[in-house]
Design goal:
The chain is built from nine helices and eight strands. The chain is an alpha/beta fold. The chain has a six-stranded mixed sheet. Strands 1-8 form a two-stranded antiparallel sheet. A hairpin with a 2-residue loop joins strand 4 and strand 5. Helix 3 packs across helix 7 and helix 4 runs antiparallel to helix 8. GO terms for molecular function: metal ion binding; metalloendopeptidase activity.
Length: 279
């Protein structure tokens, strides 16, 4: 993420897409629940923009973070999205960082929050406004589909094999192994073999599957569900309620959340119901 600009804003997109209040209630509900509700993300129904100013007056950087909402978490979507993220990573960096030289920090990857899967892309720059950065990200998404069409079957299979190898790679440290386990424990999902499950599905994902996600979820203006966080440099002109072609600028975050539906919460499993084979 673009932590060096504003970790509180760009590094924590969960605060924008999370539909639960701090007390655990769902925005729009009457009163707080007796027990905190599981966190649930808003179901985006179009293209949205959040605009913030870099709060550090001595930091000249602007940035943009784009979250493409792909859908509810599942093993099949995890497999498709992790393969998509692998395919996007090098072209995204080489196009935006090396060729166009938009900024020093360019990143992309799979992002999962509260039972919802996203593809994220971010750029930080001290030369260009976030509006320009976003326009170049949009152009990259359009060109990436053309790039996918040039992939041969053999090369696509090599990408699949590389993703499977990454998923099946053993933890290098005790800390990494512990983090994997505690992620499942904290979420009360206990799918300790989740990486193996996803790795088994990756070889079944076709290039057509990936192209369909790019067409409908990334490049398709009318069909994608996208959140853009634009961070303006201290010296940039910024209009909080300015128009954004094909998108809605969020002025009131609470109101934004109230009018949207929510994804289901993650299914939680009682520790006593876990098969011994998974322990």
């Amino acid at each position: 993420m673009v932590a060096s600009v504003d970790r509180a804003v760009v590094g924590r997109p969960d605060d924008i897409i999370d539909g639960t209040r701090n007390d655990g209630a769902i925005d729009g509900d009457e009163g707080a629940p007796l027990m905190p509700s599981p966190r649930r993300n808003v179901r985006l129904d179009g293209n949205y923009v959040v605009r913030e100013r870099n709060p550090n007056p001595s930091n000249p950087n602007a940035a943009v973070l784009v979250l493409f909402q792909l859908g509810q978490d599942s093993t099949s979507l995890r497999a498709t999205s992790v393969l998509l993220a692998h395919l996007v990573k090098v072209p995204c960096f080489s196009t935006l960082r090396t060729t166009e030289q938009l900024g020093y920090l360019v990143s992309s990857g799979q992002y999962i929050a509260n039972n919802v899967i996203y593809l994220s892309m971010s750029v930080q720059s001290n030369k260009y406004s976030p509006l320009h950065l976003q326009s170049r990200l949009d152009a990259f998404c359009d060109s990436f589909r053309v790039h996918l069409q040039t992939l041969s079957g053999d090369l696509f299979q090599q990408h699949q094999a590389a993703v499977v190898a990454q998923l099946m790679e053993a933890p290098k440290t005790y800390e990494e192994e512990s983090a994997r386990l505690w992620h499942e424990i904290a979420g009360e999902t206990y799918e300790f073999d989740r990486r193996e499950q996803v790795a088994a599905v990756v070889p079944t994902v076709t290039l057509a599957d990936v192209v369909d996600v790019v067409d409908t979820k990334l490049a398709g203006v009318a069909t994608r569900h996208r959140l853009c966080v634009q961070i303006f440099a201290p010296t940039d002109d910024m209009h909080m309620d300015g128009e954004e072609e094909g998108a809605t600028v969020i002025v009131d975050r609470a109101e934004f959340k109230r009018h949207l539906g929510l994804f289901p919460a993650r299914t939680r499993i009682s520790a006593g119901a876990i098969p011994l084979a998974k322990l």
